[in-house]
């Protein structure tokens, strides 16, 4: 246990593993290696990542929301659950640590990390563990490849947004509806007409689907914002007027989604949808929430795919989501596509009974990160 001592060393080592999970990246820690006090823990995480600083030059962060993420893992005390996972979203230029939303990409790295650190014993061929995301109470079953009882990272699975190929990580979500919002459709509608004030004070109206099937999101048509939906992430990030309108809309719908004032929150995410252009079901440009994502998050893809199969959503007339109780929905994004397998409730096809997908993950660095000694007052037992 690390406690305050008379040692006047400036920095203290903290065990961590830098992991890529899906299209995200960040350090993973055992919960027992971090301070138990939340405020102290958050100060440590800010120091680890180098926030607030837009370059994160003094930490492990990569100057982007996708590389400003942290995973905290422990053995679970919940019956039937193997691991607890707490996800922390940091921002390069902010001193906030947000543990409210989930991250499906970082989730893909939880079981590999747990096997690496001895929390889970690898099976002879594959290993499956049930993981509870403490952020929202969502559970999922994750399966990784462990031939010979050892974690295998090399493989043939490719995911858009990540170079090369790797071993598959299969994620079966057990309950994603209303992960943060009161319900999957927090307003009770598949489509809402939303009014919001622009920076100049003008009132605008737009059709939107307000939805949370793993990630709170606001889906709007790209055409309603004067763009095609084919623009690159860089082009959209340079469009300050567009980003200002999306932020005004995001702030306006927060209370309607049961989220209250979302000005300081990393959700809801904003998503511009358009007709597919590469053989998928729908094309997307997602903001997380102020930066356009080069790809799309796992739970964002699940949520967008869900909107595509709901009658009357904002994707109506744009999406090609097929038919039947089990559908594979290909969500296009700036660097490729993300396929989500949805299973609809046979009693009510406006409800999604399950979602499954493939990701990849790997460790990038094993070792210790140095943090100011003054921040490590106490560790969790």
What does this structure look like?
A hairpin with a 2-residue loop joins strand 14 (326-333) and strand 15 (336-345). The protein has helices spanning 38-49, 104-107, 110-116, 233-237, 240-253, 298-309; strands spanning 11-21, 24-30, 69-75, 83-90, 97-98, 126-133, 138-145, 169-173, 192-197, 203-212, 216-221, 269-274, 282-287, 326-333, 336-345, 348-359, 361-372. The chain has two domains: 11-168 and 361-375, Diaminopimelate Epimerase, Chain A, domain 1 (Roll); 192-359, Diaminopimelate Epimerase, Chain A, domain 1, CATH 3.10.310.10. With 381 residues, it is an alpha+beta fold. It is built from six helices and 17 strands. It is globular and about 55 Å long. The chain has a 17-stranded mixed β-sheet that branches.
Structural class: alpha+beta
**Terminus-to-terminus distance:** 8 Å
Question: What is the CATH architecture descriptor of the largest domain?
Answer: Roll
Strand content: 25-35%
Q: What composes the largest sheet?
A: 17 strands, mixed
Radius of gyration, taken over Cα atoms and rounded to an integer in Å: 21 Å
Give the total of beta strands: 17
Q: How confident overall, as mean pLDDT?
A: 93
Summed up:
By secondary structure, the protein is α+β, with helices and mostly antiparallel strands.
Keywords:
Diaminopimelate Epimerase, Chain A, domain 1; 17-stranded mixed β-sheet; about 375 residues; alpha+beta
